[in-house]
């Protein structure tokens, strides 16, 4: 409890100190529109509506001692409004808001009584709004619901205060690519013929890093040796690096069907087929088996965040998948019969970094094993992916410059 209080005090001081920078900063993605923001009551229900100039990822949760509602946003400029205008109505007591950490803003409202969040939705379209509905609960029930959900998307190592928020790449700097060799250490991944997926992906990642570096890209790896790296940490590495693109590299085994050839995977909660879904589940299970605590990752509100992230980043990731698959195909390297597929891969859930998972081949296929072990194939594949990434990055940068005008 003391620790939570101290954390909160630190946050509070941080908000006070950073308010000026935040509220005059040009980096905000969205601005609060006071005329469309209100706290209203209907029976026992209190509704908090926040009008925004554009939709941004957000999450809402409750904290205890004292009871508070916390809403985190990526990033909102609150300077047009007054927090007092929303305060002291229904279940909502005093309200404050401001920057939480670079790129993230926070609203904190004291609750006049223990409450639960019935719904937390964001309306997109012409007039984006975040709408939260709260209703009262017994004190015992509140305590059970309170507490900040932990997630790689939010609980990041604090970047240096001078670091500017990450911007979409526009070609003005070398493309930053994070390569993520799948599995490692206690989690060997797929195994066949004395081969370990974890070793193959690392070997290939090194070849790909070399090819990309020669092409002028800046490459960061989530692991450089055969060690275990939790899925969340892989995302954190990409975020800390300010990656423009995240590529997770795998060579799984598939007992289902006779999978062969390379496949590029995009994030989607609906998998292309059962085999893809099993692949994603197996990757998550690997973390559990390795002893990673996944508590608090299934909170309903995270879904809202993911949906929005997808709106922003998914079209870019989709184009990257198509261009990279095309480059592999035109290098006459063996592709899976469905070269671009979808699955719910946790490692692809960075909200603002286009992220793909490439199954280089399948360890369960004899032909694929031969290819994966062949240094000449590795070099051709590395070249093809590098060409695809370069082609995508050029078009992506052109679009970023266009959007800015
Ligand atoms: Zn794998």
Automatic annotation (TrEMBL):
Catalytic activity from the UniProt record: Hydrolyzes the link between N-acetylmuramoyl residues and L-amino acid residues in certain cell-wall glycopeptides
Signal peptide stretch: 1-21
Domain MurNAc-LAA span(s) in chain numbering: 235-390
Coiled-coil features, chain-numbered ranges: none
GO molecular function list: N-acetylmuramoyl-L-alanine amidase activity
Domain of life of the organism encoding this protein: Bacteria
Cross-referenced Pfam families: Amidase_3 (PF01520), AMIN (PF11741)
Main EC class the enzyme belongs to: hydrolase
EC number(s) given by UniProt: 3.5.1.28
PANTHER family: N-ACETYLMURAMOYL-L-ALANINE AMIDASE (PTHR30404), N-ACETYLMURAMOYL-L-ALANINE AMIDASE AMIC (PTHR30404:SF0)
Protein name: N-acetylmuramoyl-L-alanine amidase
Species: Paenirhodobacter hankyongi
Lineage: Bacteria, Pseudomonadati, Pseudomonadota, Alphaproteobacteria, Rhodobacterales
């Amino acid at each position: 409890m003391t620790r939570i209080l101290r954390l909160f005090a630190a946050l509070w001081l941080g908000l006070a100190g950073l308010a000026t920078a935040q509220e005059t900063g040009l980096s905000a993605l969205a601005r609060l529109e006071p005329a469309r923001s209100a706290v209203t009551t209907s029976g026992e229900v209190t509704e908090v509506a926040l009008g925004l100039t554009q939709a941004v990822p957000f999450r809402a949760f409750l904290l205890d001692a004292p009871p508070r509602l916390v809403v985190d946003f990526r990033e909102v400029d609150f300077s047009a409004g007054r927090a007092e205008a929303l305060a002291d109505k229904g279940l909502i007591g005093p309200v404050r808001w401001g920057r939480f950490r670079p790129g993230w803003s926070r609203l904190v409202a004291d609750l006049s009584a223990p409450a639960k969040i019935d719904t937390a939705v964001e309306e997109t379209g012409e007039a984006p709004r975040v709408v939260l509905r709260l209703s009262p609960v017994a004190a015992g029930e509140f305590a059970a619901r309170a507490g900040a959900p932990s997630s790689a998307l939010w609980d990041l190592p604090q970047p240096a205060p001078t670091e500017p928020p990450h911007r979409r790449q526009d070609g003005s700097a070398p493309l930053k690519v994070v390569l993520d060799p799948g599995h490692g250490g206690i989690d060997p991944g797929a195994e066949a013929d004395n081969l370990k997926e974890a070793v193959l992906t690392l070997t290939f990642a090194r070849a790909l890093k070399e090819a990309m570096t020669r092409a002028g890209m800046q490459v960061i790896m989530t692991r450089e040796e055969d060690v275990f790296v939790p899925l969340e940490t892989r995302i954190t590495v990409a975020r800390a690096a300010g990656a423009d693109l995240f590529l997770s590299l795998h060579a799984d085994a598939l007992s289902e069907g006779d999978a062969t050839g390379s496949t590029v995977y995009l994030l989607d909660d609906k998998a292309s087929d059962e085999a893809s879904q099993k692949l994603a589940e197996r990757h998550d299970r690997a973390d559990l088996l390795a002893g990673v605590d996944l508590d608090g990752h299934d909170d309903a509100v995270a879904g809202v965040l993911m949906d929005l992230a997808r709106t922003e980043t998914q079209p870019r990731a989709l184009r990257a998948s198509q261009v990279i698959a095309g480059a592999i195909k035109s290098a006459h390297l063996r592709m899976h019969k469905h070269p671009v597929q979808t699955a719910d891969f946790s490692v692809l859930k960075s909200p603002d970094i286009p992220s793909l998972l490439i199954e280089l081949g399948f360890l369960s296929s004899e032909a694929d094993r031969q290819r994966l072990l062949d240094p000449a194939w590795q070099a051709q594949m590395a070249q093809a992916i590098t060409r695809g990434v370069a082609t995508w990055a050029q078009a992506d940068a052109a679009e970023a410059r266009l959007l800015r005008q």
